[in-house]
Amino acid sequence: MFEFADRVSRIQGSLTLAMTSRAAELRAAGQDVINMSVGEPDFPTPAHIIAAGKRAMDEGYTRYTPAAGLPQVREAVVTKLARDNAITVGPSEVIVSNGAKHSLFNACMALFQQGDEVIIFRPYWVSFPEFVLLANARPVVVGSDPENQFEPLFDELRDKIGPRTKGIIMNSPSNPTGGVWSRGAVEQIISIAREHNLWLLSDECYEQLTYDAPFESTAAIGPDYEKILTFQSCSKTYAMTGWRIGYMAGPEPLVKAMTKIQGQSTSSPNAIAQMAAVAALTGDQTVVAEMRAAFDRRRQLIVSGLAAIPGLACREPGGAFYVFLKVTELLGRRAGEKILRTPEDVTGYLLDEVKIATVNGEGFGDDSHIRLSYALSDREIATAIERIGAAVKSLD
Ligand SMILES: Cc1ncc(COP(=O)(O)O)c(C=O)c1O
């Protein structure tokens, strides 16, 4: 038998990636699966970004770069944050990584250790507790209000902050819920973080995908609190998930600490992708608005379609491209011989019966919802709603 370090058993594999590969396997076996488990835009990377990547190779951007990213990409982030987010930083306050996931991981490694506690909000993105555990710290889970864009339960948050609490990780717009927190909620979080001298990690990967109100960055709401860290990504904004470019803006000493960790683990982010990111961040932004408009239209389609199915309670998410669907009314109902007892039974039933791949809430710390991604064509969304409607109707 092989033996591995404890940290391997301490963490879980990514449930969302597992569902996506299960859907891909079924498709490869010839099944007509609609994959609503995906966590990425269905659009191709815009042409001018691809052209910049090709040009980068021709121009010789094929070598190692500085660990924190090429000067021009750090500058591009500075320009972007000022333009879109009213955040004023210098290039030395920016690190570029292999996706925002990598920046988040590096930040947790640089900030947290054994004995520390880090607050995360349920339902959480699958990787937050695992980042904290990999840093040997303890994730402390605080609930949220499904009726109010999954904003934090502030009384519970205050109760759970103690002498060991070192940080809070927030994510609005949220994966998995699509919830967008109000300015008031973000102000409260900032003031709690300030009161207890906590790091506030703001995962803003979906910042360009809000539909009911313009997005406001946490660091722009609390510009004078220096422990706010902004994590953003090219992945969802520019349909660049496979290029692996994300970044963090925060205090220079933290950027230096993270650069040390990044330099000793993955060296630099990919040079070609960095040059493509410069084109993405500083080039024509109309592509972003077009993708946002398409996602908004799909949001309306899926929310109205699901709301019309008896037994499903669908609230309107303010952002990202997910619907977090409450399925408790389906639990206890019978599908042939089998009784649906958990959201996992519901996702299994939808996949087996009507070939719709979704993700159950369990990996997000939730036991009453399933997550559906609407990063799909209008036609696929319409077909998915028909199939889900038929599947729910045929339950006894
Ligand atoms: C909330 C959240 N944060 C971070 C990421 C990671 O993004 P990236 O592709 O930039 O690593 C994702 C991707 O699914 C996400 O949903």
Tell me briefly what this model is.
The protein has 2 domains: 6-31 and 287-393, Aspartate Aminotransferase, domain 1 (Alpha-Beta Complex), CATH 3.90.1150.10; 48-283, 3-Layer(aba) Sandwich (Aspartate Aminotransferase, domain 2), CATH 3.40.640.
Q: Strands of the biggest beta sheet: in what spatial order?
A: 2-10-9-8-7-3-4
Termini gap: 47 Å
Give the amount of beta strand, in percent: 5-15%
Number of strands: 16
Would you tell me the overall average pLDDT? 95
- Count of runs of 4 or more consecutive helical residues: 14
* The top level CATH class name of the largest domain: Alpha Beta
Radius of gyration: 21 Å
Low-confidence stretches: none
* SS-based class: alpha/beta
As a percent range, the share of helical residues equals 40-55%
CATH topology of the largest domain: Aspartate Aminotransferase, domain 2
Return the CATH architecture of the largest domain.
Answer: 3-Layer(aba) Sandwich
Q: CATH H level of the largest domain: which superfamily? A: Type I PLP-dependent aspartate aminotransferase-like (Major domain)
Count of discrete structural domains? 2
Major sheet attributes: 7 strands, mixed
Oligomer: single chain
Pattern of helices and strands: HHEHHEHEHEEEHEHEHEEHHHEEEHEEEH
What form results from the Cα inertia axes? globular
Describe the model.
This protein is 41% helix and 15% strand. It has helices at residues 6-10, 15-28, 47-58, 71-85, 100-111, 127-134, 154-160, 183-195, 218-221, 252-263, 271-282, 286-307, 343-354, 378-393, and strands at residues 34-35, 94-97, 117-121, 138-142, 144-145, 151-152, 165-170, 199-203, 228-233, 246-249, 322-326, 334-335, 338-339, 356-357, 359-360, 369-373. The strands form five sheets. Strands 2-10-9-8-7-3-4 form a seven-stranded mixed sheet, with helices on both faces. The model has no long low-confidence stretch (mean pLDDT 95). The chain binds pyridoxal-5'-phosphate. Residues 39, 99-101, 125, 171, 175, 203, 205, 233, 235, 241, 246 line the site of pyridoxal-5'-phosphate (PLP).
